[in-house]
Structures are given as C-alpha cells and as structure tokens.
Amino acid sequence: MIPRYLVDFDLEALPKVKTDVIVIGSGIAGLFTAIKAAKDRKVLMITKNALLESNTRYAQGGIAAVISEDDSPAYHRQDTLLAGAGLCSSTAVDALVNEGPNGVKELIRLGTTFDEDDGELALTQEGAHSHRRILHANGDATGFEIVRALSEQVKKKDNIELWENHFVLDMITDEGVCVGVLVQDPGGNRIFVQGDATILCSGGSGQLYRYTTNPEVATADGIAMAYRAGAKIRDMEFLQFHPTALCYPGAPRFLVSEAVRGEGAILRNIKGERFMDKYHELLELAPRDIVARAIVSEMEETKSTFVYLDITHETTELIKHRFPTIFETCMLYGLDMTSDWIPVAPAAHYMMGGVQTDLNGESSLSRLFACGEASSTGVHGANRLASNSLSEAIVFGRRIVERIRELPPLNWSRGSLVVDYKRVEVPMQAIIERRLKLQKVMVRNAGLWRNEELLTKGIEELSRQLPIFQSALCKKEEFEFANMLTCSLLIMNAALARQESRGAHYRSDYPERNDQHWRKHLLQQREHEIVEELSDDV
Fold first, then answer.
1. pLDDT digits (tens, 9 = 90+) for 455-488
2. What does the record give as cofactor (predicted)?
C-alpha cells in the first residue's frame, strides 16, 4: 500500500511560508503560468533542479499552431483527434486549436524569437499533420529558446520568488482541498508552504524507462504526489515512445526530431531497405506509435538493435540550417547527417496520461491544478500529435490563471497534522540499484509491446519494492525513486486493465482496437479500484 505522505512530519512544528500561487516546475508550463499569474498575484516557483532544466529545454520539433492562411483550426482539430485514437476530449481540443495561435503571439511578445523566412514565420510539417503549422526556433532548438525567453521574464518579475534545488514532497490537503505543499530545501530542512492555489507543472515520466529522450529530472514526481493526495489520475497506460532516438555506442539517447522525417528523411532497416510502406500509407509521417512499432518489428526481423534514418539526399545547407543541434550532436560521435545514415531506435518520450483536469486545468482536488505533461487535459487522447504539447501548456496555463482569479482567498489556519510511520533508514546504494532495476522492468514489461503475462510479472516484481515507503527517506534520489515506483505501478495496472490496442498502448494478446467496449478512459485514485469513464471524443 502506498502511504498518504512520503515522509514523517509535524505540521505545527514546521516553518511556514504563505503565498498566493505555488508553481511546481520550471518548464514551459511552469514559466508561462507563473508569468501570467504574477500580473496580480504573489507567486512562488519551486523547482527541484536549476531554473533552465526541464523537458521543454530539449524539445526540438517546435510548437503547433494555425498560422498559415491555407490552414485552419478545423484541420488542426481533425489531425489531433485522428492521432488521439478516439480518446481526445473534443472540447479540450477545440480550446487548443482555437486559442493556440494567440498563445504563440504571447510567446513572441514575451521575447521568444521563432525562425522566419522572408520576414514571415517559418512553418514546417511533422508526422500526422496535414498542413505546415510547426513554428521552430534556431532550427531545432525551439524548447531551449522558449525556456530562455520565459526564464528571463521570470527573473524580472518582482511578484515571482524562485526556489531552485528545492524538492516538493507532498500536497497538504484538508477535506479534499489542497492548502499547500511540504518542501525540502537543499540543506534537508522541511518547510510548509501555504497557497491559495497550487499548480503542478512538474513534467513527465521518461526516467521510468532505461532508454528515454527525457532529462534526469523527468521522474513523474507531480503525478505521484497528486495520486498520494487523492487526485484522480487518468490514462496512464498511454506513454509515447519517440521512434527516432540516436542509438550509437557511447552516445546518449539523443532525440532526433520528428521534423527530420517531416523534411523528407526516410527509414531504412539494417539491410538498407526502406520499410515504412509495409506498415502505413503515410510512410515515415505516420503517427509516432505506428512508426515506433514498425521500427521494433524491423529490428526483431533483422536481429538488429537499431534502424537507420537517412536524410543524405537533402542538401548540406538545408540540413545544417534546419537541424544545427542534431547535426552538431551527431558530429560529436563521428556521424555526419549529410553523408551518413544515422542509427536510431525508439525511446520513452512523452506521457499522455497524468492528473485529470477540467477545461480550466483544475484537478479533482479543489485548488490543485495541473499543466503541461503532468496533466491529462484530454487534448492528446491515446497518442499525442507532434508539437501539440508546447501549445497545450500555453493554452491551459492561461486558462488556469483565469480560474485562479475567480477563487476567493483560502481561509485556512494550520491545524495539527502529525505523520509518524516510525520509518527506518535505507542505504543510499540500495536506491541506485533499485532505480536501475525498475527501469529495466519497465522496458521489458511495459514497453512498446505488452501482454497479460509481461504486465502481471512486472507488477509482481515492482510490488516487491513497496517496503521502500516504510523507509525514512531524506535525499532527492530517494524521493524520486518512490515517485517512480508509484507511477510505474499506475502505468502497469492501467495497461493490464485495458484489454485492447489503441494509440500508444499496444497489447500483443489484444492487438485490435475495440471501440465497442474500450472507447473510454481509465481513472486511478488512491484507495479506489480503477474506474472506467466514457470518452467524449466525437
């Protein structure tokens, strides 16, 4: 059983800080929401690492929004719903496609510089998009440019206080209302922060897997915290594996953007054969889950650990101009995109599920909001359309702030809350070993291919790690492992319950999509059974 709180504490004995809005995380969702809220609220932004370290920083492809005259929100809506495989919230998608363009204008106003062609915003096309609507910055460094611009704005705001290298341990709740958070500072001291509203912008869960495009910070902390607090968690079985991560000895699983295929790159197996025509009519521009599984199929058939991505038919000038970061990174390992085929393989990339929210970003717990990858707004359904994630963060970040402005001040005085499980210490080395073992179990048992036997065995293996919650955790790595274990079990239990294949979730024992029974979401809540909820995708 996963306990309500991660550590023991006496709330009355803790130092207390009070603010209007608590923002947890410093990716695009956290930065943008904090900036918007700071217009008339006092904001405390808390991040467990440095301000600039987040998934957004590594986002290459771009941000999707209807800009071109030959494009329309209706086209963007259709593409998003198609990729989402019947589980998108149509109202959430409507919000995204109609409000996204203004969100992009807001990013530009806040200092983001997107690439231009002849004085006009440069637009590219990515997999499963019917039109060119992807804005990018510095070729393939869009996320870094957005984080750079927004971080500079955050530093200028008198109303924003920033706590770097602070770890949020848990939400403090009272009768279904989030009243604040329990935080540990770099020195190991714990603080109670009370706020009128708490916004989870803590990112995704890529580090649950041995191979991921995500940075070290992506350990699903916010989702785990929200689950322990009693919030509803939705669609955790849908985890997207990016088809093309660099797979080369000595190199990290560096993301090779979808945009490379959007600009004409083709996939070849180890024999040099182009193969996507066997799997989908859109070839290399098929939805990510289809491309990823096709790659794995070719790897198994040819007994290889990778396939090749070939863009050598394009000009050197185009490659260097459009993909400078990818080009330079490949060159570090002796790979020249202009003349070499690049070895790639799928890696864990993005979580569609997360904390269930409404159209205003509010969770099932009053005054607790979620934005960005930690949230489940309903935009992505069973499979995120490329470059919709940055748009989602902007659109729903603004909506969250508008909702917070409607809230009355929190009238709550600190009560007596003592948590004492008599926990015992655990050796640090054990945590390092357990983390690696967890990542291997997730790759083997809850990866691109799943079935009842694998999932059942994986749940059994991970459940043996549950005694960690009886330990006196005190270091960041220990908190992260507890959160990773929590979310790994959420993923596996949801994947076991969904007896079909849909979007990013593929069951080899149930290989077909079953709309008659499974066009629905799976909700998980602490101390409750999994609940099925019908999709409103139309």
1. 999 999 999 999 999 999 999 999 999 999 999 9
2. FAD
